[in-house]
Amino acid sequence: MAEHEHVRVAVIGTGFGGLGAAVRLRREGITDFVVLERADAVGGTWRDNTYPGCACDVPSHLYSFSFAPHPDWPRTFSGQEHIRAYLEHVADVFGLRPHLRLRSEVKLMTWDAARLRWVIETSSGSLTADVVVSATGPLSDPRIPDIPGLDSFPGAVFHSARWDHDQDLRGKRVAMVGTGASAIQIVPAIRPDVAKLVLFQRTPPWVLPRVDRAISGPERALHRALPVTTRLRRGLLWGIRELQVQAFTKHPNELGLVERLAKANMARAVKDPALRARLTPDYRIGCKRILLSSDYYPALAQPNVDVVPSGLAEVRGRAVVAADGTEAEVDAIVFGTGFHVTDMPIAERVVGADGRTLAETWKGGMQALRGASAAGFPNWMTIIGPNTGLGNSSMILMIESQLNYMADFLRQLRVLGGRVALDARPSAVAAWNHKVQERMKRTVWNTGGCTSWYLDAHGRNTTIWPGTTTEFQAATRRVNLAEYDVLRAPAQGSAQAEERVEAGA
């Protein structure tokens, strides 16, 4: 990276959000941009998560860009290797490689009010940008709890998102900490090879069958020959999930039938009533993410698996000790304990117009106008920002809506002309957040009786979107300049750092 390089747009991250932003920039005729990536390859979470059994729980044809349909998905639910290959394909087909700056971790981003641009310091050099699009994603930085004695554990310790493939777990005694989306894939994948698997379950998840199958050759051939069939398949998958949203957002009591299906799924595989009792959640289904697996419960019923209905509290040498006092000797500890979602580390590295970091601004809880713009951070946008997550559909739909918003944001800057920036008004951010939180009150995520990673340290749901993807698409179709302050560069020789102009004036 050239010293003091300047670009129109700097994108951060090369997962779906970052690559999608890069594609959209090119389609908008903008080629003066770079994509900064801390790793040595593209792929985001699908590059980082290589644990045994890693796969997506959203159907393949819905978990892909609408502008880059893939007729050759091998399975209805694709594995990590296929999704990563798809993202590599997107980078090649859309000519993104020249824009990539790999091994360029962002260390600090500071708003320069005098020049109306961002100063970005990376591990490979410095640059400036008129606009920053942050697409680091909420599932980027693993969270490992602070467990007393963990540092002195003599065996292997790693997080599911940083799987240590040098560690051979065959014949070993393994502790699996956590029962989230990663854990329910890891457990059945490693269970046949380990001597003993001890699962620390703080809260049992609701699990429905994962109806996965290979997509036949004739199906793939049809999709190649008639692309409209791929779009129809995607549309059907989308429509089914749109119809489900009402139960999550307005009528959680209607989810009782789904709970009965989940209990029947458990009963088919787990015959021991005591084990079934440990595995049965005491909260409304959907409050935490509904997990999909057809081999998780069968794995837990095997004789070399122990389910401890308590979280890991302490490590004493090779002994792992649960909060309920249960002890077990193990050779390796695998954490499936999630990510820094509501306290993303990148927020510590973004310094806005008033000298405060994004983390300081969001100390009372994340909030951004239409999930994209934070007050006090001009010409900065985030993809998969606050309250843009989904509990039952594909995040690619939300990402594409945010890309529409990003594209119009850049169009507005071009129309305004000159050295100009848009800064979300605090009143607009507050009004948007109030509307979102009011809608959130009746959703299953707030009323279902659980504590989930959707909630921040204050108990507020700053993660999930309380509506349909259609509603979000409508809300992000255009930038409303009345929700922004327009910042213009000072006249030559002026000591004033910036001039705030009423939108539309």
UniProtKB/TrEMBL annotation:
Pfam families: FMO-like. The keyword Flavoprotein applies. Keywords: FAD, Flavoprotein, Oxidoreductase. The keyword Flavoprotein applies. Belongs to the FAD-binding monooxygenase family. This is NAD(P)/FAD-dependent oxidoreductase.
